[in-house]
Amino acid sequence: MHIQVWQGDITSLEVDVIVNAANESLLGGGGVDGAIHRAAGPELLEYCRRLGGCPTGEARLTPGFNLLARFIVHTVGPVWQGGQHDEARLLAKCYRNALALAESVDAHSIAFPAISCGVYGYPAEHAAALAVKVLSEPRPTGSAVQSVLLVAYSEAMHQILEQAIATGG
Ligand code: APR
Fold first, then answer.
1. CA of 37 to the centre of ligand 1 (A)
2. Percentage above 90 pLDDT, the chain
3. For 67-97, what is each residue's pLDDT tens digit?
4. 79 lines ligand 1 (CB under 6 A)
5. Ligand 1 nearest-atom number relative to CA 77
6. How would residue 57 be classed by pLDDT, with cut points 50, 70 and 90?
7. Burial of residue 130 (number of CB atoms within 10 Å: 0-12, 13-18, 19+)
8. In the annotation, is 9 catalytic?
9. What are the DSSP E strand ranges found in the chain?
10. Quick count: other Cβ atoms within 10 Å of Cβ 68?
């Protein structure tokens, strides 16, 4: 699996799966969640209403609707509370569960935003290192996913993600 950084708006990517940093309601919000719902269109919200929410660390699959991406994996990252509240384990779960759902639809390419690094306040350096470490773990044989994009929405995040990849997480 090839992991690389890409800087820009995740909703513009033509990949099999884009990952949404959602909240437990799955009913939309600000940040990347708001951008994805705006770009996917109102059918996404209708679809999400029927999912009944998603616990932190878990992930749910939806169609991409008006997005170029075929699917969206909605995952709920932990809110940073200082680091002693299981945040790292829950963030790692987000990446693993999202990847597993992408594999379940034979996705070859997946793009992740910096889950929890915005409103949820997770320190970007820690989150970036964790993401690279988890995404570098061996995958089941036959896993279709070949390309992983870590999407930076700022130059600062771009540098942080490049650094995490350079050091292997
Ligand atoms: N494309 C790529 N990345 C983006 C985009 C975008 N269009 N918009 C924002 N980001 C980046 C942010 O800069 C940040 O680095 O996504 C990262 C995650 O930030 P948030 O979107 O705030 O997500 P998170 O910190 O996980 O908080 C989730 O915020 O939007 C609400 O409904 C969401 O309640 C949930 C909470």
1. 12
2. 95
3. 999 999 999 999 999 999 999 999 999 999 9
4. no
5. 26
6. very high
7. buried
8. no
9. 2-7, 17-22, 59-63, 71-76, 109-112, 147-152
10. 12
Our mutation pick for probing the ligand 1 site, out of 32, 76, 94, counting the most ligand atoms within 8 A of Cβ, is 32
Q: Which residues lie closer than 8 Å to 166 by C-beta, 6 or more apart?
A: none
Nearest CA, atom 30, ligand 1: 30
The predicted pLDDT at position 140 comes to: 85
CATH architecture of 2-166: 3-Layer(aba) Sandwich (3.40)
> How many whole angstroms from 167 Cα to the centroid of ligand 1?
24
Ligand 1 geometric centre to CA of 119 (Å): 7
Distance spanning both ends of the chain, measured CA to CA: 15
Q: pTM score > 0.90 for this model? A: yes
Q: Does residue 37 have a pLDDT over 90?
A: yes
Q: How far apart are CA 141 and CA 104, in angstroms?
A: 13
Which ligand 1 atom is at minimum distance from the Cα of 28?
32
**Residue 157 CB coordination number (10 Å):** 21
What is the CA(35)–ligand 1 centre distance, in A? 9
Domain limits, the chain:
2-166
